[in-house]
């Protein structure tokens, strides 16, 4: 129980030894084991030392066979130092999480190349923001395409338009409330001209609010539309999306943003739309890369033309939209994905080829399709989530030492499990590794015994009265 509390609260959640010591004393176990602040800190330090050794032992078990991965790259800033993060997006395995003084290309290359070579990994595609060092790392370092992150593309537009449109909507609401109050006062005072004047102001305020609300809705619809366009299938008719179609639809979104800005007198002083348009090709390349993976896989499986056409046009859309429907938490988006999934399901049931497959063949192709769908990535949100977790721990006031960071990396890779019970390491290397906490228990040894403190002496001032002068 003590080791579990230290592991879960002390390491994973960043709770200090002071608080843990008070907790153990509160549940009355300080009479059986040593739970002083210094004793607990010593145990935590021992855990931090042991955890990286566990990862080294596990990585020695990996068979030397090449793995191709889709990587997410990002940097996180913590005061006077930077953390460089490299993650395999499909499995969530952190390949690099290291403290650095800078984030230039040379630093990235020196840290990532030996790490990937030691594990036999090859990066076939990269998703990142548009930082120059990260783009260069993909193109020059990994020799692959650099895909843009959907989240950052939306964030750029949101920072430009979102706050300004929100202020206009808030202002319109306040003006309507003010006009209604003035109109009520005019009615009570029975002032004819003033009443009609205030009524006109109220009607005008309602029109302004309606316009601001419509603009806001239009903006939100198109902001979400950026994400909706970057799919391998059309959300409307499940047709296959190519790079050209995606870029054309993103251009329509860009034109809508420009029209909204112009109609509301919002200037694009920071050239946000130019930056957004420069990301069209990197956003579309993630879809293009995925389709290359699909066709390469079908070629390796030596599928005939009819089977390949059924798989790409009928089976994959069903599995893809079902996966996205379960993944998203946005109610409006979930509804759209559900509609696309229902359309794809009806289409595959009506196709005559579906009825010719045996149960075993259908099961085999379902497994293949699910595997392919999991390899589609258009966002580095998993890396952003990891950065947010580290940031929260750092800003809670405990700081983040390089030793603690290494321990947290191991816990992420081998200690955190998804709903299916798999860890990131198992998903990447397809090997069952020992249980991290069980291994840690065996290595930690015995708990320290409580110290026998000296009996407390309480001075009594009355005892001095009997002393002769």
Q: State the low-pLDDT regions, or none.
A: none
The whole-angstrom Rg is 30 Å
Q: Overall 3D geometry?
A: globular
How far apart are the termini?
A: 59 Å
**What share of the residues does DSSP label as strand, in percent?**
5-15%
Structural class: alpha/beta
Mean pLDDT: 88
Q: What kind of sheet is the major sheet?
A: 5 strands, mixed
| Tally of strands | 5
Helix content: 55-70%
Number of helices: 17
Q: Element order, helices and strands?
A: HHHEEEHEHEHHHHHHHHHHHH
Strand ordering within the main sheet: 3-2-1-4-5
Number of domains: 4
What do you see in this structure?
With 469 residues, the protein is of the alpha/beta class. Helix content is 64%, strand content 8%. The protein folds into 4 domains: 2-59, no CATH class; 67-148 and 379-444, Nucleotidyltransferase, domain 5, CATH 3.30.420; 150-300; 301-378. The protein has helices at 2-12, 17-26, 37-59, 105-119, 132-141, 150-189, 192-229, 243-263, 272-278, 280-300, 305-327, 331-350, 359-373, 381-398, 402-415, 424-429, 436-444, and strands at residues 67-78, 81-88, 94-100, 121-128, 145-148. The protein has a 5-stranded mixed β-sheet, with helices on both faces. Strand 1 (67-78) and strand 2 (81-88) form a beta hairpin. 29% of the residues are buried.
């Amino acid at each position: 129980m003590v080791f579990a509390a230290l592991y879960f609260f002390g390491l994973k959640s960043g709770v200090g030894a002071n608080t843990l010591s008070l907790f153990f004393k509160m549940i009355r176990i300080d009479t059986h084991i040593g739970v002083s602040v210094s004793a607990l800190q010593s145990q935590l330090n021992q855990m931090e030392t042991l955890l990286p050794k566990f990862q080294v032992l596990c990585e020695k078990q990996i068979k030397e066979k090449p793995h191709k991965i889709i990587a997410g790259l990002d940097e996180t800033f913590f005061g006077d130092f930077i953390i460089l993060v490299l993650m395999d997006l499909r499995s969530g395995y952190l390949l690099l999480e290291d403290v650095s003084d800078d984030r230039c290309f040379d630093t990235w290359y020196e840290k990532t190349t030996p790490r990937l070579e030691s594990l036999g990994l090859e990066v076939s595609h990269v998703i990142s923001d548009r930082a120059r060092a990260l783009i260069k790392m993909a193109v020059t370092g990994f020799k692959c395409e650099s895909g843009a992150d959907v989240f950052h593309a939306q964030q750029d537009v949101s920072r430009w338009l979102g706050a300004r449109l929100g202020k206009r909507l808030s202002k319109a609401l306040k003006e309507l409330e003010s006009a209604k109050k003035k109109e009520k006062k005019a009615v009570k005072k029975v002032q004819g001209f003033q009443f009609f004047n205030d009524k006109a102001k109220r009607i005008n305020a309602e029109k302004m609010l309606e316009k601001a609300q419509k603009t806001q809705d239009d903006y939100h619809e198109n902001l979400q539309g950026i994400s909706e366009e970057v799919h391998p299938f059309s959300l409307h008719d499940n047709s296959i999306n190519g790079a050209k179609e995606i870029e054309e639809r993103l251009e329509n979104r860009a034109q809508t943003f420009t029209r909204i800005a112009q109609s509301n007198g919002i200037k694009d002083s920071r050239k946000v739309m130019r930056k957004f348009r420069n990301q069209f090709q990197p956003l579309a390349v993630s879809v293009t890369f995925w389709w290359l993976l699909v066709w390469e896989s079908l070629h390796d499986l030596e599928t005939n033309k009819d089977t390949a056409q059924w798989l790409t046009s009928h089976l994959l859309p069903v599995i893809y939209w079902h996966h996205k429907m379960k993944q998203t938490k946005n109610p409006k988006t979930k509804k759209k994905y559900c509609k696309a999934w229902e359309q794809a399901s009806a289409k595959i049931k009506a196709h005559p080829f579906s009825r010719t497959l045996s149960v075993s063949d259908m099961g085999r192709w379902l497994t293949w399709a699910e595997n392919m769908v999991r390899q589609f990535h258009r966002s580095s949100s998993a890396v952003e989530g990891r950065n947010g977790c580290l940031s929260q721990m750092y800003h809670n006031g405990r700081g983040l030492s390089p030793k603690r960071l290494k321990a947290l990396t191991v816990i992420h890779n081998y200690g955190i499990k998804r709903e299916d019970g798999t860890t990131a390491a198992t998903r990447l290397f397809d090997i069952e590794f020992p249980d991290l906490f069980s291994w840690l228990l065996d290595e930690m040894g015995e708990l320290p015994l409580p110290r026998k403190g000296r009996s407390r002496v309480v001075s009594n001032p009355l005892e001095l009265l009997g002393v002769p002068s």
